[in-house]
Amino acid sequence: MLEVCEVFYSLQGESSFAGLPCVFIRLSGCNLRCTWCDTQYAFETGTMMELERILDEVGKYPTKLVEITGGEPLLQEQSINLMQKLLEQRYTVLLETNGSIILNKVPPQVIKIVDVKCPGSGHGDSFLKQNLAFLQPHDELKFVLADRADYIFALDFIKQSSLQGRHLIFSPVTSSLKPETLAEWMLEDGASARLQLQLHKILSIA
Q1: Which residues of the chain have pLDDT under 50?
Q2: What CATH number does residue 163 fall under?
């Protein structure tokens, strides 16, 4: 059983899979309260669903790309079983996680999109550094940036952790950091990351 906030079908809005049709399984509950969080409704009590029921819901849509997100999906141990079952059904499985929970049990075939929280989130010390050891070449690290201090934090984190060459994403909190400003900083520094806007918000879809 898993506590589910919602299952929905939309275009992938972030990561290197942005723009592709995707089924999203949003699990309820989160251990963080980021200042810029746009899914606070996932903090609330969800619907308890058997894994088979979730798989049936996912199977209604015409895509083999699925993302497990939250909240924080790894708070629920059964999320690992869900990933395994989706892989067995030949889905490409994405996991969006906040980096504060150990990743050692996540199946290696799952593509992890790991959020490294910057100071502007209110949780700049939440990332478990040991999680870097569990990253596969296909995994991605995302930095949501609210201001210049967050940007410098991200550059320092990448340098200190020797992450150059990995899939790195810089995503601005558009209410506080203009994308154009972030683009200028990245060009100035030759940042080894990809600037990405949240496509689902630009298109005003789920």
Answers
A1: none
A2: 3.20.20.70
